[in-house]
Design goal:
The chain is α/β, with parallel strands linked by helices and 369 residues long. Helix content is 49%, strand content 8%. InterPro entries: ClpP/crotonase-like_dom_sf, ECH_dom, HIBYL-CoA-H.
């Protein structure tokens, strides 16, 4: 079964209707013996998926006074439902009993990375651009990032979350974001291979997949891939793993910028300095808590739902989207302008959203995570 995200002008950004439709297709295919595997791609050449349709979420938040607001979330029902449904879809992909193959061409960011990272076979091409850039909009790396960023080498998860830095295909294959590399021009022949492959025999399928990739790969195709962007700095980034809090990690990051005057690190630092100080604290805490408490993937999604609803409720997300994508003045008025000024109680409250006595349990507790 082939599923194509078909909003190319919006870089295939996800909205609630798309999330529900994808979930329904996957649930139906799970028990359909005629479907042996699922292939995901995005329409157009620019992106697999740039994430959630955050401008649409922004508009719904702005209409909060006229929209129905649920007692359960204190955010518009459609916004609350989007995050819950999106996380359920991501978890379904992570745990799907049949192979899911994703063609990750172009932009694979935010919610798009959530779809991509959960698949069993993840193809990166010469145009792949992977990132979790939520710090620039006052959100945080969600869609299971609390889990998969903790699987990266020391300090890399904090670096990517703090800076929203992009990585390319060679970074992705080394860091297990991607499982295979193919040139974008090989997509048609790859689909022909999938049609003929015996997907039901997993071992034989992976052997034939490796043989196919070896066959189509050559020096000309290999030359299409740019050198890794992040890998040369892994040793330097590892110091972030020793930080005891977000402020200490930020100091290490700034020191890294002074030692390494590369364009890549400079861009990362500019993104960090533009971004929300609240998000930096959330990134550090979500990774720390998931690692310290040995959270399962399901537990990470439940934690992230509390964080997402909190971000919608306190307004940091709305201000971030306004500044970057609506008014485009790129001068966000963050609630707290400096890391040191963000109260610990304010950050902790993001993780306790559903512990308020006036609210029910986390809705994901009742779902099949």
């Amino acid at each position: 079964m082939c599923l194509t995200l078909n909003k190319p002008k919006a870089l295939n950004a996800l909205d609630l209707d798309m999330v529900i439709m994808l979930t329904n297709y996957l649930q139906q295919a799970k028990n359909d013996d005629s479907v042996s595997a699922v292939f995901f791609d995005g329409a157009g050449e620019r992106a697999f998926c740039a994430g959630g349709d955050i401008v649409r979420l922004y508009n719904e938040l702005c209409q909060e006074s006229v929209n129905k607001v649920t007692d359960a979330t204190n955010v518009p029902a459609s916004v609350a439902d989007f995050f819950m449904q999106e996380y359920q879809l991501d978890y379904l992909i992570h745990t799907y009993p049949k192979p899911i193959i994703v063609w990750g061409n172009g932009v694979v960011m935010g919610g798009g990375l959530g779809l991509f990272r959960g698949a069993s076979i993840r193809i990166a091409t010469e145009t792949t651009r992977i990132a979790m850039p939520e710090i620039s909009i006052g959100l945080f790396p969600d869609v299971g990032a609390s889990y998969f960023l903790n699987e990266l080498p020391a300090g890399v998860g904090v670096f990517l979350g703090f800076t929203g830095a992009e990585i390319n295909a060679l970074d992705a294959i080394a860091l297990n974001f991607a499982t295979h590399l193919l040139a974008n021009s090989d997509k048609a022949v790859f689909l022909s291979f999938l049609v003929q492959a015996n997907v039901n025999d997993r071992h034989a399928f992976h052997q034939s997949l490796d043989a196919f990739i070896s066959k189509v790969s050559n020096a000309e195709r290999t030359s299409l891939f740019a050198p890794a962007a992040l890998l040369p700095f892994l040793d330097h980034v590892s110091v972030l793993d020793k930080a005891i809090n977000a402020e200490a990690a930020a100091n290490e990051l700034l020191a890294l910028g002074q030692l390494n005057q590369s364009d890549y690190i400079n861009r990362a630092l500019k993104s960090f300095q533009y971004g929300s100080p609240t998000t930096a604290h959330l990134v550090f805490q979500q990774l720390l808590r998931a690692r310290r408490d040995k959270m399962s993937l399901a537990d990470c999604f439940k934690m992230e739902l509390s964080m997402a609803y909190s971000c919608m409720a306190v307004g940091e997300f709305k201000e971030g989207v306004r500044a970057l994508l609506v008014d485009k003045d790129k001068t966000p008025k963050w609630r707290y302008q400096q890391l040191a000024k963000v109260p610990h109680a304010f950050i902790n409250a993001h993780f306790d959203y559903f512990k308020n006595n006036d609210l029910p349990l986390n809705p994901l507790d009742k779902m099949s995570l």
